[in-house]
Design goal:
alpha+beta, single chain, about 55% helix, 23 helices, ABC transporter transmembrane region fold
Length: about 750
């Protein structure tokens, strides 16, 4: 096979690294062609090493990671290549009627190519078995990721999961849904704007009689008519007063409306954000979300209250001025407006560049706020590892990137704004030249020319102002797009249209063929489990076995990909999310406390709880005594994330918080994993009060903490492998037995190490 033929391999199965080309050529026989390839990067001990699988038109070739020799399996009807993945590791197994022939491991970065490889294997095997040559249609694959496409499919479902669309000025019109409740106030504001603009139009018009009937006759020797001057002066003063009154009123009314629109926008965005599932937050940075709800909504509010008002006023002024100019002298008006098409074309040209530029600035600014959102909450870790210099360098890099993006955009804006100003000055120059010519011919008077100059100055002044608002408009469009990105996102855990109401919750939980995937990674599959009301079930297994994911599915933080979870015989997807979660008390390994008093944190799930109820829950959780030792007792302030309290104290407050809502279902996720033995005993006594009469699902690495569980469920690689009581599972000497033995060996090793040190 030639090098040119090998270079075309990426069209069907992923890019072939150059280091393999000569080795592959040496393995190929005459007339054998490479169809697809996959580079695997893990050996059988899950250590990083490079290997490769090759599918040709006649066989499967493989070189295992860390091995020098090649293996080959000719195609046969009973040969199959199976693919599965779990916990970040992909698996390919070559199986025949005799059993498993070979297996390969890889990280999930190659998962898409692995799926494609399996498809190509099946196609080549079937073609070989039937004796019909396989015609490979490379035109119907994604040019980027090589994923197969349907015949009528134009977009790749993999590559278009996150589709980037640049911000559009039309996005601002979507803000009307927030402005609709204030349409009467907006109508009043528009009327006041119209009156204010009309008042501003009066003074230049009065300059015509002042020039032609007062000043020029006076220069020619005619006495000044005082009454006429007083009339015109009164008109000028009256117009100025009216313009001030109407201008103040319209600014005040529209500013009030814009602030309320901004407040409604922030509120609805935050409400919608809280209703989104954990899957959405898993792919977002805290600083970016804070920036969207905070600074982006503020930018929109300023645009609505100031810049949009000025823009509308400028439009009215330009329209009215244009009408007046044409009514005074159509020919002069045509010359005056000559630069207008060039300015409009320039605005259109620059707008597109500004639109994408400002959206990029917003994203880069999000990088800056993300550094702050990471560092400030984690300042203890930063200082503990002496990484202040590193974090300062991260911020400096992000800030420098922000500066570079702004500088690039400012190059465009710095050229655009003076160019518009130059064209407006050119327009006024044209008016002077043609106006003087018209006066010399007697076609117009000096007063008309003066009024024309005054109106034109206002016209081009407003036009220049409108050109400058392009920048603000594109910034606001970018901000609106980032906010509507949140509002347009549909929760992956939706509320049902017609939720089922449970008259009384017993607490029976049933899982039927439950499966779940994180992206391409299968975490749980085929889980069947019945948990009776009031029963305590312990989930055990190695890290990554799918225990926490199963708990997240039961809490409906995520929805199952396969199967169903039922509460008292009703699918939990048929229940209102808030109603269902009110039946669940959750105690996490790392309890989260909010900034506020102890009492406020205890009553978080039940804000209307009385002080007596709060204290009763604290006593049951064995937290009452240490709370009373605090300076202000239950009114003592807790720092952000529970600063000022020990891990055991935070955990007992978390237990009391769960007790206070009196849930039917209790979830304990490693509730004692991060505390010492003495504190664990205190927490265990608190948990005894918490689990009474409740359906309890507990996860624990310390198997001793599940001694009082009615049943143990052992998980491995996302499936349930054993189920039963402690003694029953120990007698089987299966997965649970090995877990207990492994934990006992670790404990013995720790004790031996301590003894040798002592």
């Amino acid at each position: 096979m030639t090098s040119q033929q090998l270079s075309t391999l990426s069209s069907s199965g992923g890019e072939l690294p150059d280091r393999w080309r000569s080795d592959i050529q040496a393995q190929l026989s005459q007339g054998e062609n490479v169809v697809s390839a996959l580079e695997v990067d893990l050996d059988q001990q899950l250590r990083f090493a490079k290997g490769i699988l090759i599918i040709t038109n006649t066989r499967l070739l493989a070189r295992a990671p860390g091995q020098e020799q090649w293996q080959a399996w000719p195609f046969s009807f009973d040969l199959s290549l199976e693919h599965h993945d779990h916990a970040g590791v992909g698996h390919l197994e070559l199986v025949s009627a005799r059993g498993r022939l070979a297996a390969w491991r890889f990280t999930l970065g190659q998962n898409l190519q692995a799926i494609r490889l399996v498809e190509q294997f099946a196609a080549q095997r079937d073609s070989h078995a039937s004796g019909q040559p396989l015609i490979v249609d490379d035109t119907n694959v994604c040019p980027s990721c090589k994923a197969p496409l349907e015949p009528d499919q134009e977009e790749c479902p993999v590559c278009t999961k996150v589709v980037y669309t640049p911000p559009s000025t039309w996005t601002l019109f979507r803000l009307w849904r927030f402005a609709r409740p204030y349409k009467l106030q907006l109508g009043l504001g528009f009327l006041l704007m119209l009156l204010s603009t009309g008042a501003h139009m009066i003074p230049p018009y009065l300059t015509i009689p002042l020039m032609d009937k007062v000043l020029i006759p006076y220069q020619n020797g005619t006495p000044v008519d005082s009454s006429l001057v007083a009339l015109y002066m009164s008109g000028l003063v009256g117009a100025a007063v009216l313009a001030w009154i109407f201008g103040w009123a319209k600014t005040y009314v529209l500013a009030l409306v814009s602030e309320r629109i901004g407040a409604d926008l922030r509120t609805e965005t935050y409400d919608h954000l809280l209703r989104l599932s954990l899957e959405y937050f898993g792919g977002k940075r805290t600083g970016d979300l804070m920036s969207r709800i905070g600074s982006e909504s503020d930018r929109i509010c300023v645009f609505l209250s100031l810049h949009l008002l000025d823009f509308a006023s400028d439009c009215l002024m330009i329209i009215m001025t244009g009408v007046i100019l044409f009514s005074i002298d159509p020919y002069l008006a045509i010359f005056a407006l000559a630069p207008l098409p060039f300015i409009a074309w320039l605005i259109h040209l620059v707008r597109d560049r500004l639109r994408t530029g400002f959206e990029k600035i917003d994203r880069v600014w999000g990088e800056v706020t993300n550094v702050l959102a990471d560092t400030i909450p984690g300042i203890r870790v930063v200082k503990a590892f002496a990484q202040e210099t590193r974090e300062a360098a991260r911020f400096r890099t992000a800030n420098k990137h922000n500066l570079a993006v702004n500088d690039k955009l400012n190059k465009i804006w710095s050229l655009f704004s003076p160019t518009v100003s130059f064209l407006t000055e050119l327009g006024l120059l044209v008016i002077w030249v043609f106006g003087i010519y018209q006066v010399s011919k007697g076609n117009i008077t000096v007063g008309v020319l003066s009024a024309f100059i005054a109106y034109s100055s206002r016209f081009y002044g407003r036009l220049d102002s409108m050109s400058r608002i392009v920048s603000v408009t594109q910034k606001s469009a970018s901000a609106a797009k980032r906010i509507f990105d949140i509002l347009d996102h549909v929760s992956s855990v939706p509320d049902p249209v017609n939720p089922v109401k449970l008259a009384k919750v017993e607490g029976n939980i049933t899982l039927r063929e439950v499966g779940f995937r994180y992206g391409n990674r299968a975490v749980n599959r085929g889980i069947n489990l019945d948990i009776k009301a009031g029963e305590m079930v312990g989930l055990v297994g190695h890290s990554g076995s799918g225990k926490s994911t199963l708990v997240n599915l039961i809490c409906r933080f995520y929805d199952v990909a396969e199967g169903a979870i039922m509460l008292d015989g009703v699918d939990i997807r048929s229940l209102a999310v808030s109603d269902y979660r009110r039946q669940i008390g959750l105690v996490l390994q790392e309890p989260f406390l909010f900034f506020g008093t102890i009492a406020e944190n205890l009553a978080y799930g039940k804000p209307d709880a009385t002080r007596a109820e709060i204290m009763a829950a604290a006593r049951a959780a064995h937290a009452h005594e240490f709370i009373l030792r605090l300076p202000q007792g239950y009114d003592s302030m807790v720092g952000e994330r529970g600063q000022g309290l020990s891990g055991g104290e935070r955990q007992r407050i978390s237990i009391a918080r769960a007790l206070l809502i009196d849930p039917k279902i209790l979830i304990l996720d490693e509730a004692t994993a991060s505390v010492d033995s003495e504190t664990e005993k205190e927490i265990q006594r608190a948990l005894e009060n918490l689990v009474k009469g409740r359906t309890t699902i507990a996860i624990a690495h310390r198997l001793s903490t599940l001694a009082k569980a009615d049943r143990l469920v052992v998980m491995d690689r996302g499936v349930v492998v054993e189920e039963g009581g402690h003694d029953e599972l120990m007698a089987k000497e299966g997965a649970y037995y090995r877990l207990v033995q492994a934990q006992a060996r670790n404990v013995d090793t720790d004790l031996d190490d301590r003894g040798s040190k002592d």
